[in-house]
Amino acid sequence: QPQDARAYCNGIQTIQKHSREIFLRTDISSEQLATRGLQLVAPAVVRRQVEPEWTWRVSLEPDEDAILVAMHEKHRYNIRLAQRHGVAVRVECTEEQKNKRTTEPKPFDVFWSLLQETAKRQGIGTHSRGYYETMRAVLGSHMSDVKCFLYLAEREGVPCAAAIVAYHGDTATYLHGGSSHAQRQHMAPHLLHWQAMRDAKI
């Protein structure tokens, strides 16, 4: 929201007056920065890209059928293929995992394994494991107004895909995720993404 962007930028300027920091990484949109007369500039330092470079926005106001129709036909096909193949999507939140006792692999361990597999396969960089653990702990804490969920897509108990999704206000953001190359024929990521979109509509 514009008022949030103004408060955010004011906070940055206040910190800058009392700090020697010269670089800030932010995902706030250029439209929001414009509310303060600021603009994005090309960085003077180039480093290996770790955070997503682009954010794709999809309106979830239409009903589910309308959203599906607006998708590429291959996406719709892959969602239904995953359903026919018996892929199931479940959701874990931070607090639930703290209280759960099970001999099964912990959801975060599954996420980390799939993330590393995907990064190696696609030749992309990732943060350390601690980065993602801290991010989930902070976003999922009772002190945060952001809800953070870990989505897992499985087929016959075998992990196929995983993703971390954050919810704030009327916006859901897919943050990080990975998938299994060995299970690629089941199109699990498509169903996982669709389930997250459906949950965001509730």
Please specify the SSE layout and strand pairing.
Blueprint: H1 2-17, H2 30-33, H3 64-70, H4 73-84, E1 87-93, H5 94-99, H6 107-122, H7 129-139, E2 147-155, E3 158-168, E4 171-179, H8 188-201
Antiparallel strand pairs: 1-2, 2-3, 3-4
Helix pairs in contact: 4-8
How would you sum up this structure, described in words?
The protein has 202 residues and is of the alpha+beta class. The protein is built from eight helices and four strands, in the order ααααβαααβββα. The chain has helices at residues 2-17, 30-33, 64-70, 73-84, 94-99, 107-122, 129-139, 188-201, and strands at residues 87-93, 147-155, 158-168, 171-179. It has a four-stranded antiparallel beta sheet with strand order 1-2-3-4. A hairpin with a 2-residue loop joins strand 2 and strand 3. The mean pLDDT is 82.
* Count of DSSP strands: 4
Structural class: alpha+beta
Separation of the first and last Cα atoms: 21 Å
Radius of gyration: 19 Å
Helix content: 40-55%
What share of the residues does DSSP label as strand, in percent?
15-25%
H and E order: HHHHEHHHEEEH
Strand order of the largest sheet: 1-2-3-4
What is the mean pLDDT? 82
**Tally of alpha and pi helices:** 8
Low-confidence stretches: none
Largest sheet: 4 strands, antiparallel
* Global morphology: globular
